[in-house]
Every structure is written in C-alpha cells, then in structure tokens.
Amino acid sequence: MEKPVMKRLLFDFFSEKTTAMQRKLIEEWLKEPPNEELYYQYLDAWESENPQFFPDLDEAMKRYQVQLTGTVSRKAASEPSVNLQRLPSLSRGRWYSSLVAACVLIVACFLFRKELMYQTLKSANAHSSTYQLSDGTTVLLNANSTLLIPRFGFGSDSREVELEGEADFTVTHTKSNKRFIVNMGDHYRIEVLGTQFVAYSRSQEKRVFLSHGKVKLQLPQGKQIYMKPGNLFTSGSNDSFNITVPAKPQKYTAWKEQLFYFDNTMLSEVARQMKERFNVEVRIADTILAERRIGGIYRAEHPDDLFHILSELLPIEVIQNQDHVEIRNK
C-alpha cells in the first residue's frame, strides 16, 4: 500500500474512524517489521496535530485547598449565596450533612486517587514475582519493585502502567493495536506495540534494555528516540543519555535467574545492588576497600549467600549490626 494512502488510513484509525475491515488491514500491515517504525512516525505526526487533554490533578487539588481554607474566587463571589438561616432546621441539617459528605468524598478522591484508580503489584525482598495483565502481557518484577495498573481496566486508546524498580515485560499485541506505555517517572516514558524489554526505574538511574521488537522512548524536554533489539538506554545527569549495544547483555537480565553479574565491579556497587535486591544496608569501612573490584556470575537467593561469596573472594570480615551490615578488611 502506498505511503500517502496508509498515512490517511492510520490517521483515521488514531481518530477511531476506521471500520473492522480497515483495522484488520492495518493489523496485517503491522506484521512487517519495517512498518512498525513508520507506524510510530505517523502516530507522532497525528498527535502533534491532535493534542490530547490530560487533566492537571495537582493543580485541581491546589484550587480545592484554596477554596477549603476560605479563599473565594471572584467568580464564586459574584454568584448568589444560599441563605441557610431561611431554610427549615431539618433541611439545613440535611444540607450540612450532604455538604460534609461531599467534601469528604472530594478530599478522599484527591488524596487517595492512586489507591482508588490503580492496583499495586509488588515483589518482596530477594524474590521476583510474575504477573499476567488483563491484556495477556506478562511482567516479571525484580525484588523490591512495584507496578501500578489501572484498577478498572485499560483505556480505549492505550495500556498504561507505572513502574518503580525493575521489570521484564513481554508485551502482547492487541487486535486494535493499542500502545503499551510504561511510565517511569521524571518524564521518562516507554511506548511499545508488541515486544520484550527490561525497564529499570530508580532514583539514581533510568535504564531500558530491548530484547525483541521496537520501542519509542519519550525523554525529558520533549526528546524522543527509537530503540532496536540489543540496544541499551541509560540516563545520565542533566537529562543526558546514552544508547549502546552491550557486549554482555546478560548483565542486564541476570536478575531474572536470581544471579548477580559482576564485571570488574566495585564493592560499593555490589553493596548498592544488595540494597536493591535484598533491602539490606551494607556499609563499607574504608574507601580503598569500597573501590576493590570483583568479577563473575553468582547465584544468591539470600544476603548470606552473597556475603559468603564475597568472603571467599576478598580478605574481609562481615559484621552484622542491628540496622546494617558492615564490611571491613580482616
């Protein structure tokens, strides 16, 4: 099919104006790998011409708090007020009760909107957890990670989730070609059609390793990049980033098999990974020891497993304290 004709057809699809036969045609067209990238390009063009509305819940909450503290806007001041003194006492009591109930409901909806609108999927310390979403997508959560999914099902336009931590996604392609979106916080966002990738979203770094398919990353300041299989995206300081093809991709997927992959890795980095995986605070006695490097692939399902391995590799002592573990030279 010629590009101009396909572009018009996709624009109708994005606007929900296509027939069942046309949607089937698009689904067949998307089976060709080169067409996925063209699909994203047309989607970007359509979105730029048709900006979507997203309500600013934080701003709405601020306005409500202003009203709650007694500050009335000019518009509200100009509207006629209800004279409660003229109402019968029974009606006035009911009016007060209804008003209080409404206020409590509004405040609860704002303060607990995430709890109300999203279901939280979690993984415990030292254990990964597998979940299958309603669309068939499989998610493997690394230890100490959470995924928020819509409590009442995905929307008609996209399938959006929020990740804090690390997860492996095997995304299922839908007949309606709904985009699968992973929000990682700090204005990082992954858009996919049908693919497999590992996403890492913690305070110090954002990371995406793509195994199969293609994804589009939306970055801070409106930047967008496309990734191909084998690409590794890592965020840097001041909104900088790198796209590389790692020679040892297992480093970014070893956790799925409860492995630690060390490649000339400093002991301070080992301690950080133990904090993420086991939620154990590890303190290293001196800077020189913290900069010692180790290598190898090790299975560790419990903190003691890795401490034992470290004791075999390095001349160290492991001291268990009440709220942390200290590592020092022998």
Automatic annotation (TrEMBL):
Signal peptide: none annotated. Residues 260-325 form the Protein FecR C-terminal domain. Residues 120-216 form the FecR protein domain. GO terms for molecular function: sigma factor antagonist activity. Keywords: Membrane, Transmembrane, Transmembrane helix. It holds the Pfam family FecR. InterPro entries: FecR, FecR_C, Ferrdict_sens_TM. The chain crosses the membrane at residues 95-112. It comes from the Bacteria. PANTHER family: PERIPLASMIC SIGNAL SENSOR AND SIGMA FACTOR ACTIVATOR FECR-RELATED (PTHR30273), PROTEIN FECR (PTHR30273:SF2). This is DUF4974 domain-containing protein. It comes from Spirosoma endbachense. The lineage of its organism: Bacteria, Pseudomonadati, Bacteroidota, Cytophagia, Cytophagales.
